[in-house]
Amino acid sequence: MTYTTKQWQAMDAAHFLHPFTDHKALAEQGSRIITRAKGVYLWDSENHKILDGMAGLWCASVGHGHPELVEAATKQMSELSFYNAFFKTATPPAIALASRIAELTGQRFRHVFFACSGSEAVDSIIRTMRHYWTLKGEPNRQIIIGRQYGYHGSTIAGSAAGGMEDMHKQAGHLPGFTHITAPYWYGLGGGLTPEDFGLQAAQALEERILELGPENIAGFLAEPLQGAGGVIIPPATYWPEIQRICRKYDILLAADEVICGFGRTGRWFGSDTFRIEADLMSVAKGLTSGYVPLSAMLVGDRVADLLISEGGEYYHGFTYSGHPVSCAVALANLDIIERDGLVEKAATQGEKLRAGLRERLADHPLVGEVRGVGLVGAIELTADKRTRAFFPDDADVGMRCRNHCFQNDFIMRAVRDTMVFAPPFIIDDEQIEEFVARAAHAIDLTYAEIKDAGLL
Ligand SMILES: Cc1ncc(COP(=O)(O)O)c(C=O)c1O
Predict the structure, then answer these.
(1) Nearest CA to ligand 1 atom 6
(2) Are 356 and 440 a contacting pair, CB within 8 Å?
(3) Ligand 1: centre distance to CA 120 (Å)
(4) Which of 109, 135, 273, 422 makes an SS bond possible with 105, Cβ 3.0 to 4.6 Å?
(5) Res 455: pLDDT
(6) SS3 179
(7) What stretch of H or E contains 177?
């Protein structure tokens, strides 16, 4: 297909409804057409080479265009392109992948249910938690507790579990969901130390459980770190306290590892990094490095034993649950991550990236904080370094910075005034220097622009 950029943009605006997009504004501006990718770089239809600081959308862990994943998909498609797992049947890649994932979790999760997207994995967790309590003879335990700024996908249940108010307004408010505060020390911690604030934020869970009655709560669903909410990394006191509260009230704990799973935080799972002992986990993105859609709900023995022994028929599943091509790609992807030591690399390169950003940006008047763990992180843009003040919403400072990144062939994402990043694990030292230089340049341009606009 040899269209010009303008022709692609016109067709795009005429027919393609994009996810999470103001379509009118985009049509006026025109999409950037991404045509190919290799390693940590993307190219657009004008042949600009773009440094991908978001690994696609938190997923391309092994980098773009890895030949071994292409080969795994081709081989599996030639052998068996599709068969389902409904008819008392299974395919070797799905069986092998379920067993491989169980092994990677140290057999803490011995059962795996496959779906296609992170949202579907989260939906599966929600219904499985509720089903569990019904099987236990406590059918009133229906409420799922999530968090402000939590993101669990965009299906009806996923958006209800998440804490994004704009999504609730459009998707409607489902009963059976409630949200507690986020452990966002930078934004909400005021004068408290991170440790005190972490405890306070965790204790909000206990307060909500008591308010609603433990006999009505199915579980607490949370990301180990809140990715789409702005890479909110909880203080060290947070997760141990959450764990204590869940145990005390016998609440199921589900870790949404869609971003963290398979190395992003420098350990195999975010639950390893933050020492979370969850009953269920959702994984997606890094499972296939985003080459093909695949997600999974991982089920620990507490839930799986009951589901299997007394659950009868499980009325849930998708045509593509355990798709053989996706599972074959995931197996090859996990081979690469293991063989090339990419989890360890995420830890070491992440440290270098943060050190570089801090050295370059710590004194910048627009930068309030650089934080991160493994290869996921955030740069807070602030109106006042001392008070950590945000800009007014309509100043769109994060979006201005994102635009400067994009215009200068570099991708970081904006969440409010927070710039977030999650590059591929294969990013090398030279590319880290390039990342730091491009981030600093975009922040300098943003600073100049907002000063001109009289916002500082
Ligand atoms: C933690 C988390 N859960 C769920 C999802 C939803 O995944 P998907 O977009 O594949 O449905 C996301 C997506 O970014 C996510 O970050």
Answers:
(1) 153
(2) no
(3) 9
(4) 109
(5) 87
(6) strand
(7) strand 177-180
Query: 255 CB under 6 A from ligand 1?
Result: no
At residue 1 the predicted structure's pLDDT band, cuts being 50, 70 and 90, is low
Structure tokens that stand for 380 in this block: 């807070």
Backbone angles phi, psi at 237, to 5 degrees: -80, -10
Sheet holding 177-180, edge to edge: 109-115, 295-300, 280-283, 252-256, 217-222, 143-147, 177-180
CB 60 less than 6 A from any atom of ligand 1: no
- Give SS3 for 2: coil
The response to whether residue 256 sits with its C-beta less than 6 Å from ligand 1 reads yes
Query: What is the CA(257)–ligand 1 centre distance, in A?
Result: 9
| Residue-wise pLDDT tens digits, 220-248 | 999 999 999 999 999 999 999 999 999 99
pLDDT averaged over the chain?
97
CA distances from 121 to 65, 91, 134, 299 (A): 26, 20, 20, 11
Mutate to test the pocket of ligand 1, among 147, 258, 291 (most ligand atoms within 8 A of CB): 258
**pLDDT per position as a tens digit, 416-433:** 999 999 999 999 999 999
CB atoms within 10 A of CB 394: 5
Asked if pLDDT for residue 205 goes beyond 90, the answer is: yes
Of 122, 147, 167, 282, best ligand 1 pocket probe by most atoms within 8 Å of the beta carbon: 122
Task: Please check whether residue 90 is in contact with residue 98, taking contact to mean a CB–CB distance below 8 angstroms.
Answer: no
Question: What mean pLDDT comes out for the span 109-116?
Answer: 98
> What topology is assigned to 32-62+341-452 in CATH?
Aspartate Aminotransferase, domain 1 (3.90.1150)
Q: Which two tokens stand for residue 123?
A: 């939906």
Residue type, 17: L
Q: Distance from the CA of 362 to the center of ligand 1, in angstroms?
A: 31
- Residue 164 C-alpha to ligand 1 middle, in angstroms? 13
Q: At what angle do helices 342-361 and 324-339 cross, to 10 degrees?
A: 70
- Is 223 a pocket residue for ligand 1 (Cβ < 6 Å)? yes
119 Cβ below 6 A of ligand 1: yes
pLDDT of residue 456: 83
| Chain region(s) in the chain for CATH 3.90.1150.10 | 32-62+341-452
pLDDT tens per residue across span 17-70: 999 999 999 999 999 999 999 999 999 999 999 999 999 999 999 999 999 999
Strands 418-421 vs 109-115: parallel, antiparallel or unpaired: unpaired
Segments of the chain assigned to CATH 3.40.640.10: 68-339
- What is 68-339's CATH number? 3.40.640.10
